TrEMBL record, chains A, B, C, D:
InterPro entries: Tscrpt_reg_HTH_GntR, WH-like_DNA-bd_sf, WH_DNA-bd_sf. It comes from the Bacteria. The lineage of its organism: Bacteria, Bacillati, Bacillota, Bacilli, Bacillales. Keywords: DNA-binding, Transcription, Transcription regulation. This is DNA-binding transcriptional regulator YhcF, GntR family. Residues 9-77 form the HTH gntR-type domain. One of its GO terms (molecular function) is DNA binding. It comes from Terribacillus aidingensis. It holds the Pfam family GntR.
DNA sequence: GTGGTCTAGACCACA
DNA sequence: GTGGTCTAGACCACG
């Protein structure tokens, strides 16, 4: 059945993920300017082309906007920010549940296990 | 900045993970024989040495037993099976929560989101 | 009859044993750097892979720590050092007693013989 | 310093050791006939030449006697039996102490450790 | 430089 | 056939 193995996600997607998370978490706020392609390339030690591709990817999803001659900025469109936030959350959750089910864990067990970790900072009912 | 990018987990660990999950999920049952090193190497398209290393890893954790001249078998030791199952579960949960927190989601939001999938959707396949 | 003849311990375990003893005896001190994989391979006249395996084995037991790009170092964790020291001691003692019993020596004779060497001879060098 | 690794003791010496121990332990008694070279070769799954060499070795030490046309017998010379018994014992003890000292264990620690094993369990064989 | 992974192919021991 | 060990040589990531 199984085929080959992951040679890991492309760097430009890893970078996109990281930026998405920084935006969603509020580390990067609406209207914030992202580092220039060249700055980002240096600080992340990747090729500028790779950063370019990441920015293009993010712009395609609407979460950032490129303004010619000025730079790349986090969108201030709240709908897009909100839906991105929801989408990332749901992706994570779906993936998590998928994996847990594949390993044979039942819903109750998953929730019980999770509660164990979340309790202390959260609530339960 | 602190970190670069992941260059992916070693193949022998990816294989170990896969087998661990198959055992934990019951797809491979206690006493079952795993494919021989050579078979697995062919079907997974990796070098026999890499499979060997995987099997060795699994044996070190006690989840399988290798019998020279016979094959490699899923342990029938229930304690080890149980603790492996628990460990994998907790690893997944911890990782999930870690990621969610990094993205700025609060405990309540995580649990609410999860409940939607687990209770609302009856997300079984 | 039951058994054939020993075809000797694997090289990587012989090497591990030797290093374990050097650590336990204090010849290699906590924090000391072990020879690099390649150096050790040359000086021991074995393949670097074999040394790698030895180092990996030692790291799994916690007695050494490998730092990529830097080298392999004796742990400074005193608990691990102590328990390794105890384990090696007990292994030796158990084996010694096993052999002596197999040859038909009684406990009193063993202790008497030992005392001769330890107290009579002042067997220090 | 250290050179290469043991490719294990020659089989003829392993066989000699085993027979020496059987004699010293009384499993083979004075006057007992050892299996013929051919029998021993079959039962131990080694080459008859190897057995031959073992017997020659044992005869050189006086612990067995070859009688032309009759076979090989455990000596009935009590002096030789006794001194062999003592020699084997002392060899083991010396070696044991040597190893323990090399690993940095002091005399008191050795004796204390040994006592733990000898007094707790009593003896049996 | 360091350690870590992987492949290719060999040989051994067990059954 | 099985798993286990070893070598030779390559490439990668880290610093």
């Amino acid at each position: 059945m199984a085929d080959t193995f992951q040679s890991s996600q492309p760097i430009y997607l890893q970078l996109a993920d990281r930026l998405n998370r920084q935006i969603v978490s509020g580390e990067l706020k609406p209207g914030d300017k992202l580092p220039s392609v060249r700055e980002m390339a240096v600080s992340s030690k990747v090729n500028p082309n790779t950063v370019q591709r990441t920015y293009r990817e993010l712009e395609a999803s609407g979460i950032v906007e490129s303004r010619r001659g000025q730079g790349t900025f986090v969108t201030e469109n709240e709908d897009i920010l909100f839906s991105t936030r929801e989408k990332l959350k749901n992706d994570q959750i779906e993936n998590f549940i998928q994996v847990m089910h594949d390993m044979g864990y039942e819903n109750e067990e998953i929730q019980a296990g999770l509660r164990l970790y979340l309790e202390g900072g959260g609530h339960n009912d």
